[in-house]
C-alpha cells in the first residue's frame, strides 16, 4: 500500500514517450513568425485599447438605485460638453462605468467630475459615485514609457542571465522566443480589445518570467544530455530532452492555468484583463518552449554545440607494425 502511494497516481504523458518534435520545426517557426507579424500589424492598426493609465482621462464608477438606463444617462452626460463619453454596465445592471477624455489641468478635471455627479443625481436620484480616477496627458505618457522600459529591461536581463548560464546559442534562442511570445500576447490584446494598461503590463512581465523559467529547465536537460550522450545527433538529443521534461512542462503550465482560470471567470472587470492575458500567455509559453526555442537552438548549434565530439567518437587508428629486422638492415650481401 505504501509503495502504491509513493508512485504518482496521474501522469500527463508516459515516461517512455518518444515524440519526434523536431520533425515539425519548420512549421512551428513559420506559424510563429506569421502570428507575431500579424500581431505587430494589429498593434499598429487598429491599435491597442489603451486604458486610462496610458491614454489619460477620467473614469467614474457609479451605482444607481435600480437598473441603470444607459441611454438616458449617456444623453445627460453627453449634454455637458465634456467630449466623447463612454458608458457601459460594470458587473451588474445598476453599476455604470463612465469614461471621459482628458479635461486639462486639475481644476478643470475636478469641475468635470462635479458636473457629471450632479447630472447623474438629477437623472437618477440616489446615484452614488463609488470611485473616480483621473490621469493627465503627461502622467499617462510617462506611465506608457515606463511600461515599455520595464519590458525591455526584463528581456535584456533574461538575455544576460541565460548567456552566462549557457552558451550563446541558448541565449539567442530563448530571447527570440520570448520576443515572439510577447508579440503574440500584444496581438491577443489587439484582437480581444482588452485594455492595455499597467495591469496587463504586469501580466506580460509575469509571462516572460514563467516562459524563461520553462526554457531554462528544458535547456538544462539538453546541456546534461550533451555531456552524457557525446555521439548522439543534436536533433535526436533535443527530442529526447523535450520528452524527458514534458511532464514537468505540462504539469507546471496546467497548475498555473487552473490558478488563473477562476480569476478570469469570477474576478470581475478589475482582474479580468490580467487573468485572460495570463491564460493566453501560459499556452503560448508552453508551446514555444517546444516548437520555437528548440528548433532555433537546433539551427544555431548543429555545427557548434557538437564541436570536438567527432574526435571523441572517432577510433584511434592503429600504429603501423614494425618491419622485420632483416628488412630494416637491408639486403644481405
Automatic annotation (TrEMBL):
Pfam families: SecD_SecF_C (PF02355)
Matches recorded under InterPro entries: SecD/SecF_arch_bac, SecD/SecF_bac, SecD_SecF_C, SecD_SecF_C_bact, SecF_bac
Low complexity bias locations: 321-333
Taxonomic source organism: Muricoccus vinaceus
Region (Disordered): 311-333
Domain Protein export membrane protein SecD/SecF C-terminal: 121-302
Function: Part of the Sec protein translocase complex. Interacts with the SecYEG preprotein conducting channel. SecDF uses the proton motive force (PMF) to complete protein translocation after the ATP-dependent function of SecA.
Name used for this protein in its record: Protein-export membrane protein SecF
Membrane association type: Multi-pass membrane protein
Keyword Transport: yes
Recorded superkingdom: Bacteria
Gene name of this polypeptide: secF
Family: Belongs to the SecD/SecF family. SecF subfamily.
Compartments (UniProt record): Cell membrane
Annotated signal peptide: none
Assembly and binders: Forms a complex with SecD. Part of the essential Sec protein translocation apparatus which comprises SecA, SecYEG and auxiliary proteins SecDF-YajC and YidC.
Claim: rRNA-binding is one of the keywords in the record: no
Amino acid at each position: 500500500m505504501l509503495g502504491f502511494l509513493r508512485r504518482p497516481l496521474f501522469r500527463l504523458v508516459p515516461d517512455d514517450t518518444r515524440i519526434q518534435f523536431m520533425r515539425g520545426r519548420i512549421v512551428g517557426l513559420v506559424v510563429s513568425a506569421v502570428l507575431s507579424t500579424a500581431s505587430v500589424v494589429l498593434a499598429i492598426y487598429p491599435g491597442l485599447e489603451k486604458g486610462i493609465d496610458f491614454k489619460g482621462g477620467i473614469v467614474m464608477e457609479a451605482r444607481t438605485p435600480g437598473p441603470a438606463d444607459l441611454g438616458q444617462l449617456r444623453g445627460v452626460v453627453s449634454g455637458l460638453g465634456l467630449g466623447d463619453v463612454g458608458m457601459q454596465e460594470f458587473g451588474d445592471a445598476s453599476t455604470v462605468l463612465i469614461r471621459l477624455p482628458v479635461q486639462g489641468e486639475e481644476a478643470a478635471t475636478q469641475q468635470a467630475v462635479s458636473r457629471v455627479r450632479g447630472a447623474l443625481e438629477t437623472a437618477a436620484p440616489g446615484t452614488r459615485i463609488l470611485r473616480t480616477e483621473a490621469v493627465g496627458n503627461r502622467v499617462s505618457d510617462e506611465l506608457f514609457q515606463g511600461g515599455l522600459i520595464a519590458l525591455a529591461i526584463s528581456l535584456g536581463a533574461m538575455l544576460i542571465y541565460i548567456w552566462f548560464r549557457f552558451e550563446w546559442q541558448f541565449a539567442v534562442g530563448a530571447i527570440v522566443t520570448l520576443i515572439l511570445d510577447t508579440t503574440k500576447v500584444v496581438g491577443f490584446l489587439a484582437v480581444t480589445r482588452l485594455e492595455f494598461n499597467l495591469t496587463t503590463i504586469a501580466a506580460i512581465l509575469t509571462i516572460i518570467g514563467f516562459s524563461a523559467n520553462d526554457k531554462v529547465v528544458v535547456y538544462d536537460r539538453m546541456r546534461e544530455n550533451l555531456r552524457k550522450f557525446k555521439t548522439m545527433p543534436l536533433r535526436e538529443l533535443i527530442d529526447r530532452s523535450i520528452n524527458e521534461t514534458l511532464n514537468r512542462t505540462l504539469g507546471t503550465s496546467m497548475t498555473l492555468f487552473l490558478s488563473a482560470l477562476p480569476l478570469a471567470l469570477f474576478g470581475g472587470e478589475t482582474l479580468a484583463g490580467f487573468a485572460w492575458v495570463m491564460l493566453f500567455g501560459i499556452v503560448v509559453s508552453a508551446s514555444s518552449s517546444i516548437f520555437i526555442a528548440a528548433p532555433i537552438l537546433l539551427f544555431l548549434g548543429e555545427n557548434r554545440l557538437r564541436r570536438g565530439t567527432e574526435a571523441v567518437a572517432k577510433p584511434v587508428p592503429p600504429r603501423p607494425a614494425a618491419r622485420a629486422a632483416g628488412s630494416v638492415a637491408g639486403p644481405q650481401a
